[in-house]
TrEMBL record:
Group of enzyme by EC: transferase
Protein name: Aminotransferase class-III
Cofactors that this protein relies on: pyridoxal 5'-phosphate
The EC number(s) this enzyme carries: 2.6.1.-, 2.6.1.18
GO molecular function: adenosylmethionine-8-amino-7-oxononanoate transaminase activity; beta-alanine:pyruvate transaminase activity; pyridoxal phosphate binding
Lineage, broadest ranks: Bacteria, Pseudomonadati, Pseudomonadota, Alphaproteobacteria, Rhodobacterales
Family: Belongs to the class-III pyridoxal-phosphate-dependent aminotransferase family.
TM helices/strands, residue ranges: none
Species whose genome carries this gene: Dinoroseobacter shibae (strain DSM 16493 / NCIMB 14021 / DFL 12)
GO annotation (BP), single: biotin biosynthetic process
Pfam families named in the record: Aminotran_3 (PF00202)
Amino acid sequence: MALDAKSRPNDLSAFWMPFTANRQFKSNPRMFVAADGMYYTTAEGRQVLDGTAGLWCCNAGHKRPRIVEAIQAQAAELDYAPAFQMGHPRAFELANRLVEIAPDGMDHVFYTNSGSEAVESALKIALAYHRARGEAGRTRLIGRERGYHGVNFGGISVGGIVNNRKHFGTLLTGVDHLPHTHIPENQWSRGMPELGAHLADDLERIIALHGAETIAAVIVEPMAGSTGVLLPPKGYLQRLRKITQDHGIVLIFDEVITGFGRVGAAFGAQRFGVTPDMITCAKGLTNGVIPMGAVLCGSHIHDAFMQGPENLIELFHGYTYSGNPIASAAGLATLETYREDDLFARALDLEPYWQEALHSLKGARHVIDIRNLGLIGAIELEPISGHPTKRAFQAFLDAYDKGVLIRTTGDIIALSPPLIIETAQIDRIVETLGEVLAALD
Ligand SMILES: Cc1ncc(COP(=O)(O)O)c(C=O)c1O
């Protein structure tokens, strides 16, 4: 493929890349210039099989015509409308479609532009909800160790990743953390692990310590993605739901990764059979194509705000781009694409094949654990002594050289291909990983 000047920027220094080893990247750049279906095209003209749906977001694969056309048409018709005190039809249509596929009772949608903003919005809504009901003393927020809730201050405060927290001061006060659910007894789990439901009971300890009347919300990923695919033990989420309900605490599921088919249902809440009070989502909402996030709210949350004089703003929160017309059009086209291709069911159908393929890597060099659910998988490697993350990062580079995009976090390889993946492509990912691991120091 001929390379034009645009594909080869001659100076890489100005762009400070996010969550990237900038100096390593810029000394040996990995540039994508095009994408279609399951494949990226690199600047050198190589095809790379997408084992990660971009960054857990392109669930319908790349360059889907319906989405491309919807964005083009919307840009030509209504490019922007003020988000405050004005509306446009697409944002309402998308909210209605989201409510249709969301768990029963999730009847309202608050738009944001990213997962991080969805988390901040949900935490703020939880605090304001209690205040609106006369329980202003409920200000504590509970997150979980090894949780990832984006990178803004609320999210890193309730999140449980040391590197995302320790550089940034004192964070929010009044935050506690539940223990994570990744226990050694559940090694080599296929689907939801058997052991660990009792880990939810730690919430009772936190309640006993502070008093339920001081606690506003608990936020967890129903399945923690970014810290290496940590699965919810059977019964764990049910227990968390029961304890939060018993004590009037808002339960928020952060479904930025698990939303939109990744675990074989529209939302993890449906797959796991537990309905929280709010769901945060982003990524797959627009197939990753245009930034957009959302908070889905139960009616009881929303309705608590709908009081007082009707000319007054009920929630003092929102973004210039909340429900942006082009993002809304992309969201509508994305949901239609998922429906047309029946992709949520497809993820569930492929799960057994995916599971067998991944677990066939048991016994490969350095592999100390494999786990999976829906079209998500993790292969955990033994870290090189004294050099954590080095081995997995090398696996990432080697797989890329062999034409497969994987993602690594710590020494864990995380996989989350587009839901359109074919079984032969699953085989290719696993075979490539087998070769990479066999050759890895
Ligand atoms: C569970 C979860 N919450 C929040 C976020 C943050 O989303 P964003 O990067 O769009 O701000 C992510 C991103 O991976 C995520 O996995």
